[in-house]
Write a structure and sequence with these properties.
Blueprint: E1 2-5, E2 9-16, E3 19-30, H1 39-53, E4 58-64, H2 68-76, E5 80-86, E6 93-100
Parallel strand pairs: 3-4
Antiparallel strand pairs: 1-2, 2-3, 4-6, 5-6
Length: 112
């Protein structure tokens, strides 16, 4: 697992077991005192760059169904809602989101 931190937030990325080209994104967090300033969008861009730098092809994350702010950030960053389910642990709705990673560089081709 790789933890990435900025002055305003943090996130984790780890490879999916047996499918290391898929990045499992979790722990996405913007400091409470700094929310509402668009920093979630900036942090999501930083996360995408880290995924591309790590040569991931695809990324997956989950989101609490009640977290409208995170859903806005995901949608604006090009993530797609793939599925949802009721959590047997919390009783709440959990969403599964995914996004293809665009890798660019001297030895990679850009794709969507």
């Amino acid at each position: 697992m790789t933890r990435h931190a900025t002055p305003y937030g943090a996130f984790c990325i780890e490879p999916m077991p047996s499918q290391p080209q898929i990045g499992l994104c979790h722990g996405f967090f913007v400091d409470h005192s700094l929310r509402g300033r668009g920093l979630g969008h900036e942090l999501k861009q930083t996360q995408h760059e880290a995924l591309a730098d790590g040569y991931y092809d695809y990324a997956i994350c989950t989101c609490d169904g009640a977290n409208e702010a995170q859903q806005r950030v995901l949608t604006a960053a090009g993530w797609l809602l793939l599925d949802h389910f009721e959590s047997s642990r919390t009783g709440g709705k959990t969403q599964i989101w995914g996004r293809q990673v665009v890798n660019t560089g001297p030895n990679t081709e850009e794709y969507l």
